[in-house]
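User: C-alpha cells for this one?
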Amino acid sequence: MRKLRWGLIGCGDISRKRVAPALRDSTICDFVAVNRARYELAEEFAREYGARKWHKTWQNLIQDPEIDAVYVSTPVYLHAPMTVAAAKAGKHVLCEKPMAMALSECDQMIKTCRNQNVQLGLAFYRHFFPLVKRIKQAIADGEIGKIVYAQFNVFSPFDRKSGEDRFWLMQKDKAGGGPMFDMGCHRIELVMNLFGEIQDVKGFPRNIVYEREVEDSCVAYFEMESGANVLLSITHAAAEFQDSIHIFGNQGSIHIKRLNTGEMLINRKGSEQHESHPPHANLHQPLIEDFTQSALEARAPIITGEIGRKVNEILMRIYGG
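Assistant:
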C-alpha cells in the first residue's frame, strides 16, 4: 500500500494530543520527521510518536526528499511563510487554523500551492464530525422547518503571562486576534457549512476582564443569504466552559450542549428526540485521512485553501478590516 510521507512542523499541545498520534496511527501515513522550536526536545518527541527523524530547522525539514507533505502546526504569523516555502519545495501542506494573518497571505498560499501542483488544506476538523453531518442533513431535509435563528456559545477560560506556554496567543502580531481569531474560525466554518453563504456580518471584539493586546471576548452577528440570523459569542473571560449550538426553525429546534460529545436533542411539535453521533476518538484523524487521500489521489481535500480564505475574510470583517 502506498503511503504519504509526512513531516510535522511544530510540536505544541495540538500536535502532541492529536496530530502526531493521527500521523502515527494512520495506515496510509508514514510519519517521517518533526521539527520544533526547541530543538533539544525534538528527538524525545519524535521517538515518543514514532517519527524517524528530527530536523534542527523547519527549512531543513521541507527540503527532506523523504517527505511528501507537511503539517504546519505553528503560531499564525508563521503559517504563510512556511506554507509557501513548503509548496515551493514540492510538499503538500495541511495548515493549522486560522489560515493566515491577512487575506493577501491567504492568496499567496493558494497561488503558490496551485502553481506548484500541491494540495493545500486547512485544519477545520469539526467539519468531519458525524454530528455536524447529521445537523446538516436535518436542516436540508427540513426536519425543523425553515431556519430562523442559531446561536453558538464558545466559552473557554484562558489567560497567559509573558514567559508562560502559549503566551503567543496574547500577542496580536503572532496570533492575529484573540479568541474569535483562534476559536471563532472553527465556528465560522461551521456556520457556512450548515447554513450557506454569509451575506453580512457585524463584530464586537472587546476586553472585559483582561488587559491584553487582543480581545478577551467577542460577539459576531451574521445575516445569512438564506434569511437566517446567527449569533456567535466567544470569550476567554467567563468562568464557565461552553461549546453549545442552538438552532431554531419554524417547526422545531436542535440543541447541542457540548459539540465534541456528539449528543443532540431535536424538538418537534412538543416531542423530543435524543441522538448520539460521537466523533472519532482522535478528533483530527478524519481530517488527516481525507487530506492524505487527497494527496495520494491528486484531488482537492474536503477543506481547501479557498475555504480557509473565506473564513479569514469573515474574520477580517468581524475585526473591522
